[in-house]
Design the sequence.
C-alpha cells in the first residue's frame, strides 16, 4: 500500500475510481465539462510552454491529454514526462501518445506525487490538469505534494495548474454548485458505475478553495508571483506560480 493510498485513500475513493473507470474517463470529462476541458488544457499547455522549457512534467497526467497537447504545441523540441499513480490510466496515455507521435516521445512514469522520482531542480515547468484538487484538498499529505513540486522545479520555473474553482459571483457560484451536484454527479455515476467516487469529486469541487486561498497556499509553500486567470465565469481557472 502506497503512502498516498494509506493516508488519503481512506474515505476518498480516488484509487478505486481512477483504476476502475479509465476506459470511460475521457468520455466522462467531455460530457461533464460540456467539452470545455480541452480548451482549458490548451490554455494550460500554452502557459507551460511560455518560458521555452527544456523539460516539462505533466503531474497526475491521467490519460495524457495535457502532455500530448504540450508536445503538439511546442515549437522547439521539449522533453515531456507524464506521471500518475494509476497503471490503467498510463496504459491509455501511452497508447494515445504512440498513436500520434510513435513510441517513447513522452516518458510516462508510474509513481506517487508525494515522492517524485526526479532530482532537485530538474523541470523547467510542471503542469497539473485537474489533479491538483485531489492532491491538496483535505489531503493529510498535501504539504508533501507541494514540497515535491517545489523541489523538482528549477529556480524561476513555472507551476501551471488548471483546476475547478469558485466563481466570484454568488449567483453564478450557486448555479455552478447545483450543476455539480446534479448533472455532473449523475452523469459521472451513470457512466462510471462508481457512485461514491463521483460523490467525492462533486463534493470536493463544490467545497474547493477559492482563488485567494489557493494563491496563499502556493505562496506559503515557497512559490511567488502567483497569477490566476478565471475560465468560464470562474468555474475553473489557471494558476501560474513561479519558484
Sequence:
Amino acid at each position: 500500500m502506497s503512502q498516498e493510498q494509506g493516508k488519503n485513500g481512506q474515505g476518498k475513493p480516488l484509487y478505486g475510481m481512477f483504476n476502475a473507470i479509465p476506459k470511460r474517463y475521457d468520455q466522462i470529462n467531455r460530457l461533464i465539462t460540456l467539452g470545455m476541458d480541452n480548451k482549458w488544457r490548451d490554455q494550460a499547455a500554452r502557459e507551460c510552454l511560455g518560458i521555452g522549457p527544456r523539460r516539462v512534467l505533466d503531474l497526475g497526467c491521467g490519460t495524457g491529454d495535457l502532455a500530448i497537447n504540450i508536445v503538439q504545441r511546442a515549437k522547439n523540441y521539449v522533453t515531456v514526462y507524464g506521471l500518475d499513480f494509476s497503471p490503467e490510466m498510463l496504459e491509455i496515455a501511452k497508447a494515445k501518445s504512440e498513436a500520434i507521435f510513435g513510441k517513447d516521445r513522452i516518458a510516462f512514469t508510474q509513481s506517487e506525487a508525494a515522492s517524485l522520482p526526479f532530482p532537485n531542480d530538474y523541470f523547467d515547468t510542471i503542469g497539473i490538469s485537474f489533479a491538483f484538487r485531489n492532491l491538496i484538498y483535505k489531503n493529510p499529505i498535501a504539504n508533501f505534494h507541494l514540497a515535491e513540486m517545489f523541489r523538482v522545479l528549477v529556480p524561476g520555473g513555472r507551476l501551471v495548474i488548471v483546476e475547478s474553482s469558485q466563481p466570484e459571483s454568488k449567483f453564478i457560484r450557486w448555479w455552478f454548485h447545483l450543476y455539480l451536484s446534479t448533472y455532473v454527479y449523475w452523469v459521472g455515476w451513470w457512466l462510471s458505475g462508481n457512485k461514491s467516487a463521483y460523490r467525492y469529486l462533486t463534493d470536493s469541487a463544490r467545497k474547493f478553495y477559492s482563488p485567494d486561498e489557493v494563491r496563499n497556499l502556493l505562496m506559503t509553500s515557497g512559490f511567488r508571483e502567483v497569477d490566476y486567470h478565471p475560465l468560464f465565469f470562474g468555474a475553473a481557472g489557471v494558476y501560474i506560480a513561479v519558484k
